[in-house]
Amino acid sequence: MSKERLYLFDTTLRDGAQTAGVEFSLEDKIAVTRLLEEIGVDYIEGGYPGANVVDDQFFAEKRTRRAVFTAFGMTKRAGRSVANDPGVQAIIASAASANCFVAKAWDHQIRIALGISLEENLKGLRETVAASAAAGREAMVDCEHFFDGYKANPDYALRCIRTALEAGARWVVLCDTNGGTLPSEIDEIVRAVTAEVPGDRLGIHAHDDTGQAVANTLAAVNAGVRQIQGTLNGLGERCGNANLVTIIPTLLLKPAFADRFETGVSAEQLARLTSVSRTFDELLNRAPDRQMPYVGASAFATKAGIHASALAKDPSTYEHVPPETVGNERSVMVSQQAGKSNLLTALKRHGIAIEKDDPRLDKLLKTVKEREARGYSYDGADASFALLAHKVLGTLPDFFAVESYRASVERRHNARGEQVTVTEAVVKIRIDGERLMSVAEGNGPINALDLAMRKDLGKYSDRIEDLELVDFKVRILDGGTGAVTRVLVESRDGSGERWYTIGVSANIIDASFEALYESINYKLLKAAPQAAGGAE
Length: 536
Ligand SMILES: CC(=O)SCCNC(=O)CCNC(=O)[C@H](O)C(C)(C)COP(=O)(O)OP(=O)(O)OC[C@H]1O[C@@H](n2cnc3c(N)ncnc32)[C@H](O)[C@@H]1OP(=O)(O)O
Ligand SMILES: CC(=O)C(=O)O
Known about the structure:
Elements: E1 4-5, E2 7-10, H1 26-39, E3 43-45, H2 53-58, E4 68-74, H3 86-93, E5 98-104, H4 107-114, H5 118-134, E6 138-144, H6 146-152, H7 154-167, E7 171-176, H8 183-194, E8 202-206, H9 213-223, E9 227-230, H10 244-253, H11 255-258, E10 261-262, H12 267-270, H13 273-284, E11 301-302, H14 305-313, E12 331-332, H15 340-349, H16 359-373, H17 382-393, E13 401-413, E14 419-431, E15 434-442, H18 445-455, E16 468-476, E17 485-492, E18 498-505, H19 508-526
């Protein structure tokens, strides 16, 4: 049986630009377009020419290679002709080859928000679409508030669709603008509409105000629409739009859709989805959502010992799809919820071979659980887990020992009478019996300690030259100033590898120092031949 084609329409650069806190520069728009082309969407709605300078610049030239470059805007204003409407003219004159016009389809909105008659609204819709089609653009219409409009006045909502199609629109998109419609209502209304209008001329644009945007989109596809609008990582006005990063793998990997439909996304492009989603978050300067379906860091992660045991026998026991199909990876974590299977998987990741009945494994599990009870959290600090494992198994080289450290913070007035804060640290270490002492100033006690500890590591100094601290997170575990502090340090080196280490103490400086010390030790461990596979 031949499959029906579904068309993916991305509106990250238009509806996504309506997200609170998001502003795209011209360079951002160009970079996002490149990302979208990597995953093979059919249409890229790049923004609203005529609305702002960035969008004018973006639409000054064609920005897509394969996807249909689409400009958004509203239909002509009442009381003027299309030729005299600068908004519509800017859209048609742009470098876009498709135009998507928003038109209201809810009688209540037309009366209140536009203050015009229902006929005047249809006239604007008809004339705008006709002008775009006459200019050789692929015209489409976003029927704003379609579902609320259909509930209030189905005849009028349907007339909006028919008017757009008769005027030359390729697609009419049914919008759940306020995002309050539920999947059962979408199903019922789309089925009623597709009884009148062919589904291969219809699209769906769902907002996530009840957390149902993806479900609503899939319900609309099931009920007959063939164009899907959505955004990268679910960006969009208020609670966001339907998340294409969730929808695409569902369409390609779930038989209920994959057996019936095809898209323009290949298996190779699907495997780039995790990277595209995370790169997009980098560009937005925000942390990726660990729990995002398919692509989140936790999407194929397990902490539970019972799950880890079964996963080791066959990954399909606890995975709904193979993680590599979307470019993600399986992760078995070590924590209080762990059993020996979790440890074995984590040890294997660090190149440590050990039998399940080796008594040292019981000792390691006991140590992990004891330390977790004191505030350590190894599921986010894999490098500290590796160090702990080598220590318990007796294979951790004795790189260097810290004999003592001291940090001081002094606020005083300098010679010009200005108030300054001076921070200084002294670290004494011992390597092969030799004592080395370093002093450093920093912009805070932790920075000063880090600089002092790394200043002179004797024979190891050149091995840590490319070590870089990337992030530093502090969490107070029990609340109050007398509480336990957990510090997580993220490091990286010239190889591009990133690792996480942890420190826990009632004293924030002590916890930080421990995490820094662990980071240096892990860097040295990586290059230590005697530690590799050292449990045997
Ligand atoms: C559901 C959606 O997401 S639709 C997309 C919404 N996105 C945006 O609005 C982002 C970009 N918008 C903008 O930069 C500006 O709103 C502009 C440039 C488009 C217009 O700015 P202004 O001319 O100052 O108008 P303003 O934004 O205050 O109001 C919108 C006007 O468009 C009219 N209008 C709204 N929708 C339509 C439509 N589909 N067709 C015709 N006119 C419309 C409104 O009645 C209002 O006019 P009025 O104030 O005379 O009643
Ligand atoms: C067009 C659009 O963004 C909406 O109706 O939500």
